[in-house]
């Protein structure tokens, strides 16, 4: 049964202030579909609350009125090649080979087209995952986790990457903490999130042609993060030399505009562990003429030396010298193995 949202009781924001997607440098209002809270799409999915936004889409918490379950709706802006992520999902779903990494990637449940005033918008329907690893990290003292906790997360990501690279033939190209999402929150937490939105609707600004909603903080969820957001992914059987990756994490071959391949997913992930989004080294000292060991003074945990040897292997300048995700998973430095059939 669909829900009826109150017409009042929410905080009305100053219409002259830029919020949410409006703050993005490339924002063009006509490219975004003007969603209304409570709107029902495809005679099935009701929009409950906004939970995110970006350059290419807005993301909404919703209810599947047919299956009586919760979903996440990723509604793309208009424009060319907005079906790229959908096509990558179709390609991954065609890989029938049983591999544990397939379960470590966010699932696509459904998709449909919304026709707006300025064109068509693709909507991807996903399971409603929790907060991102970057949000989770900010909740820890010093924005840091233990080496043991980090190793467990990296192992899981390597298994997901091995599925992408060796089975699905896909290069993610945008591995960073914001694209690692915690598993689906418990049903009780999702129900309470929905009820809270009915009791205290999200703040918003109302314009002549649309309403801009403030994103609500989504429940965190428990467990290890899943790999998501394939909007920048590429097929591995094609030749590539275009720009990829956030600027601070770009591999040498991408900067030099040489051909790149699966190995760039390894470099970008490990570099995001060591540099922040502004390109600043996370250690206390500058990079030049200083060893990796000296920059890791603040790292605590068992087998720190082995971990640094493992990092050094992954950050080879020459992409042909970098190990594959599977080789990194089974390396001697990655000391605790999971009993998985991934050969």
Automatic annotation (TrEMBL):
It comes from Aspergillus luchuensis (strain CBS 106.47). It catalyses: L-threonyl-[protein] + ATP = O-phospho-L-threonyl-[protein] + ADP + H(+); L-seryl-[protein] + ATP = O-phospho-L-seryl-[protein] + ADP + H(+). It comes from the Eukaryota. Coiled coil: none annotated. GO terms for molecular function: ATP binding; protein serine/threonine kinase activity. This is non-specific serine/threonine protein kinase. The keyword Kinase applies. GO terms for biological process: regulation of mRNA processing; spliceosomal complex assembly. Its EC number is 2.7.11.1. Pfam families: Pkinase (PF00069). ATP binds at residue 74. Keywords: ATP-binding, Kinase, Nucleotide-binding, Serine/threonine-protein kinase, Transferase. Residues 45-343 form the Protein kinase domain. It is an enzyme of class 2 (transferase).
